[in-house]
Amino acid sequence: MLALLTDYTVQTVILGALLLGLTSGALGSFAVLRQQSLLGDALSHAALPGIALGFLVAGSRSLPALLAGALITAVAAALTITLLLRRSRLKSDAAIGISLSLYFAVGVVLLSYVQGSAGAGQAGLESFLFGQAAAMLRSDLVVMSVLALASLALLLALWKEFEVTSFDPVFAASIGLPVVLLDAVMTAMIALAVVLGLQMVGVVLMSAMIVAPAVAARQWTDRLDSMTILAALLAALSGVVGALISATARGLSTGPLIVLALTVITLVSLAFAPKRGWIASSLARRRARRNLHEHQVLDILQGLALRHDDAAYLSEEGMVDSALGVRARTTLQQLERQGLVERDSHRPEEGPHWRLTAEGREAQGNALHSGGKA
Amino acid sequence: MSEAKIHEPNLAIHVEDLTVNYGSHPALWDVDLDVPPGVMAAIVGPNGAGKSTLLKAILGLVTPTAGHVYILGRPFGEQRRRVGYVPQRTSVDWDFPTRVLDVVTMGLYGELGWLRRPGRAERERALAALEQVGMVDYQDRQIAQLSGGQQQRTFLARALVQDADVLFLDEPMAGVDATSEAAILSVMRDLRAEGKTLLVVHHDLQTVRTTFDWMALLNVRLIAQGSVEEVYTRENLQEAYGGNVALLAATPQEDRPLGT
Question: How far is B142 from chain A (nearest CA, A)?
């Protein structure tokens, strides 16, 4: 393990994954909260033609040129989506879908052109489809750090403006904030985060780095600042885990491993988070259902007692079943444990009979009083 | 142009020729609105009359095709700091990860300006506003855990910290419980007593007379404006709503005072 960490390539990849995670996690929080989860997908696919164009213009596989090209076409795709939404009756999912496939198709065409043209055999641009972390150089890391730190610094500087425009854009406009401009800056920053991940994770999987950390983080916290920080940390953690696994297991590519690690974190968060998780909410639902059944069964027993004008009336369990609509045995036993009902065992041949205890009658009387019926 | 900047200085809100188009339909047509200072004014009209649009156009949130807006004698753009806004509660995602106190603090973001962060002073002011609407105990609640009325009171507190002279409220009483309605109404009356002006989109014809002292009847065009006694007539209501309000206008004893 230690030997791994001192390996030059592995170090580079781990640092890159860390930077990418911090950026995409933090900015992805805003993408998800603004209900633009799909935007990341559209932007990353739209980066492909830009990569090819960057290569054609620069004439070499220089990362700054490729990233600049990718950023330009990704932002162009965002503009296309905005225009489609403004000038047509398309809904945002359709607009995003159209833009995504259009730019991606152009990208694939350009890519095949680059591959076919002279001296480009070594371009290796197709590695941007699924990412190729091992191809990262120290100089790439410098470019990544500068861009990542710049966008995080901008996020911090404009924090409260992004907060209020994301929560309530109409109110934000009413206090004089340039909401359209802030939206454009946020979209450009998300595009930048996407572009940063192209070399490592690739066009196809990059949107997971935007959406999944935010979804996972939202499960654990109710505050924007802690959600953003947590999303950044979870994405960074997945980056490092993915990079380490890929370094130990020969031949497994880093990008998909990062996304898989992230998916595991997200699924765990969706399932186990204390308030919003599946388990917590299904337990809460079960508690509520059990409570409801208990009240219903008490009402049924009381109703039967009232009809027979006998406070200690013994109701047959089958009648309680049919009045409740489901088997009442479990509920009756719970109530028995609470001392609210008791089971009559004098005539076993007639099947189980139940009645309210004095305590149960008192509880019902109070409930009826506050409920106001009777 | 500068000598023309002070315009109708005796009016809190002065709107001239305001016209807004949505697609090819006018949502507002040639609206002239004058609201004197220190009143609680209702904008009343049928669904689709452009009530919310009027508020948004005054606040510059939708771009009018034509028209001018003056607040306390000066163009709206110069008076933004003197204006507060309570949007419709349903306009935001209440599952947004934020707490009540954070939302109220957002009311101070305009005043704070770029790059400055809210600190202790802002927190104190936000708490004072929460006190006014009776929500101090909920300051740390996630906003999804509030009732509709509590959400509305949170929005009202956010407008209160703006310390505005003219407040615009979009359906503040829609879908709120009786407690919240009473709290909201009492805050609105306090504001009026302090000499502030309130322009309120109001959906309930029954309560207009007992709640407001000034009203504007709107149905794309402005039908009538003035004191409630002057405007709340059968003819005006019929013109705004069509025939089916005759009963309402005829039976004032059915009016229910709001917030009592």
Answer: 6
